[in-house]
Amino acid sequence: MPEKTAQKPGTGLSLFFTYVILYGGFIYGCVFRPDFMATRVRDTVTVSVAYGMLLIVSAAVLAILYLRRK
Amino acid sequence: MHYQPSAIAIAVFCFFTLGVLALSFYLGRRAKSAAGYFAAHGQVPWFVNGVAFAGDYLSAASFLGICGMIAFYGYDGFLYSIGFLAGWVVALFVIAEPIRKLGKYTFADAVDASFKSRGVRTAAAISTLVVSLFYLIPQMTGAGSLVKPLLGLDNYLGVLIVGFVVILIVVTAGMVSTTWVQFIKGAMLVIFCFILVMMLLNRGLTKKDPAIFPRTFDEEEFAAKILGPGGYDAASIVAPTGGWIGKPYLRLRDKTGHESVWRFASMRRVAIDWTARPPKILWIGNFTECQIVTKNKTTGAITIDGKPHSPENDYKPTGFVLDLGSTAGVEMEDGGVVIPPSQTARNATGPIGPVDFLTTITNSAMSAVAKEEIKETTGDTTTVYFIKSIAGEEVMSAGGSPNFKTLSQPKEKRSWKDQLNFISLMLALFCGTASLPHILIRYYTVKDAAAARKSTVIGILAIGAFYVLTLFLGLGAMASGNLDITDSNMAAPLLARTFGEIWFAVISAIAFTTVLGTVSGLIIAASGAVAHDLGSAIMKREITDVEKVKLGKWAAVIVGCIAIGLGILFKGFNVGFLVGWAFNVAASANLPALIMILYWKGVTKRGIMAGILVGLISSVIWILLSSDAFTTLYKLPASSAIAPFNQPAVITIPLGFLTIIAVSLVTTRNSSSSPK
Question: How far apart are CA B267 and CA B286, in angstroms?
Answer without folding.
Answer: 7
